[in-house]
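Loading example: each entry is read as two labelled lines plus one structure line.
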Amino acid sequence: MIKAQTLKGFRDFLPREARRRQYVISQLKSVFESFGFEPLETPTLEYEEILTGKYGEEGDKLMYRFEDNGKRRVAMRYDQTVPLSRVVAQYQNELATPFKRYQIQPVWRAENTQKGRYREFLQCDGDIVGSSSPLADAEIIATAGRCIQELGFKDFKILINDRENLKFANDVEGLSEKENLMIIRAVDKLKKIGKTGVLNELIKDGFSKEVAEKIMLEVEHRQPTLYLSQIFTSLEKLGINKNITEFSPTLARGLDYYTGLIFEIEIESYDVGSVCGGGRYDNLIGIFAGRQIPAVGFALGFDRILEAMEALKLFPDEVTDSSTTILVTIFSEELKQKSIDVAAKLRAQNINTEIYLGEVKEKNPLEKQLKYADQKQISYVVIIGQEESEKNIVTIKNMKTREQKQLTIQELVSGLNKKELSV
Amino acid sequence: MIKAQTLKGFRDFLPREARRRQYVISQLKSVFESFGFEPLETPTLEYEEILTGKYGEEGDKLMYRFEDNGKRRVAMRYDQTVPLSRVVAQYQNELATPFKRYQIQPVWRAENTQKGRYREFLQCDGDIVGSSSPLADAEIIATAGRCIQELGFKDFKILINDRENLKFANDVEGLSEKENLMIIRAVDKLKKIGKTGVLNELIKDGFSKEVAEKIMLEVEHRQPTLYLSQIFTSLEKLGINKNITEFSPTLARGLDYYTGLIFEIEIESYDVGSVCGGGRYDNLIGIFAGRQIPAVGFALGFDRILEAMEALKLFPDEVTDSSTTILVTIFSEELKQKSIDVAAKLRAQNINTEIYLGEVKEKNPLEKQLKYADQKQISYVVIIGQEESEKNIVTIKNMKTREQKQLTIQELVSGLNKKELSV
């Protein structure tokens, strides 16, 4: 027999987990829409040539790509930015500019799997395409901050810098762009490996000890650029509390393509690394359109966010519990129609209602049904036995307190609807 | 330059279309949950051996499959039933039984593309695993009917039959199971090719004219089985109007694996074929668990449903329009901060607000901004010019009526919140 198993790095999401994911997605969507972002979806498969060469050698290596039945070379979505670039070129006459879109879809990368790193994972991106206004940068930061806030995080910090602050051509004579990128990648590791670590990395990269030390001294003393000051002013006007933003001259972000603003969000009470990052990247979106198109955006780390929310207990009970409010049990074959009747009445009142569909044993008919409700974390159970049927009432059992009570159906419905069922 | 294009059979969903799809998904989810179904997600890629051999030769041919970087043979999700079978086997100790799950994810099939047929499309399934009770069959039909109703369809019909009615071993001497399946596949085409067409098909399949005619006569005169009668009784108890269900002895459904109930839903005012189909399939879910596990379920035809909803104008305005309620325009660089201020106040009142982020020209600053609002179908535009700024008011313009009016910000907020803005 074939073994029932999933591929390494790929996950099933059983109901409890799936509900949590859907909850986070729906919170994020509503924040995106409150800022005027609109949804975009792109296909899982693209022509290979659309994706290759855009993510460096490493990207091409980790990309899932193959030849399809029609002998076309195709590749699976690797991120959502390159498809966005394609969309911007392909529909340039249809899309309103600036184009503000959010996109929440899985991407695939054949990474080495390790804790918190998967081969199929959800990306959540928000981008503004076609605006070079610092107000767009501020809106992006505000949207990102609001996403984190709306999920229930209280103590988080938005670290902000300008890639301009990471240019060292004036400090190091004859510095090439490639060498500058090496510095950025080294500085990016500051949090992980400390100052000494970065210095060693720079020296390993071929810089002299003096130059390395000068770079570190310089970077730590950089000040907000004029462009950053404008962003900070707009952020305040947008109602973003000053206490949660911080100019961070050593924030580097590893990716090569940023051209201005860079930022990251960290949760202070749970050390999971950055849960959100983004910035301005004015030279990437235009690749298919053949002209420069400014853009600024951010990505949320969906799996990290879920991990932090779990640890900080930020999921509301109704998300963790079953979406079913009530299980109507079946006492016997004879009384079954009564139960169906009650379930139909509850549903007619928009109460999420399940009827027990498993086998009903003659001896101890409720035992398995109560166990089922517990397993699915259903809050209430309704019982209609001989007595209840004759009196035209129901017994309701609160599965958390294990208390139970007899009620008319009307009392049950109104109690559930007003959320003041006294059981 | 690389051409910006999508693969044949694959689609981008731009905001208007993406919003409509999200609307349908969210309606379906809430119906599923009202009946006690819980969400399940499975990976895009599975070990190839999990999927191959389950969908016949045709399925193996149309499946996207390839060798991954680790030399594993993998395949892309082809439907959601086989992954469900795997999940049921893999997590048998964790899942509550009966397991009621819904699953809304894309699947991939390298079909010949034609109108309404795509290579990547969304499947929406609801299934009850582990119950052989006819009440489960009734719940499945009721859930499916409620899905269609909740989307706004008024005139639809649920056609119901029992595969038992399509067994002809007692009518045709020495009929093999394979021959019986040939008959089912021929009868399944009745709507498309008519009675004569089916007769010809049967004759082409090798049946004599007499036998073919006998089969057709038999099938048309079959009556509801006892099992179907129980389902019809439960459906009535569940509050499903008798007028929308119909016993249809010639309903066959092409797939081989049904073992009892089969049903389809048709929209009467829009001929798009069946928008929903399902039935009982007791021999499929157990394939990985190695034992028989009864199951009953249905699938909605997502693309057909969207097509019918579009044709019948069932999308509410707020889904078709932008999710942005209001666009705050920027009159000039000097007055920009005022606009940001107003936007922040609107957002603080949970009003979906966008600030214009494009370039603001000195001459005719509003022209492009109003065009932007029109293009995104945003309902209202706020204007804050010199006069408004001095008087601490705003001008609000209704983009549908083109009327405008001056208001204080408080008046604006309360008018929008109460949905009684008199502009």
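Chain A touches chain B through 100 residues (CB under 8 Å).
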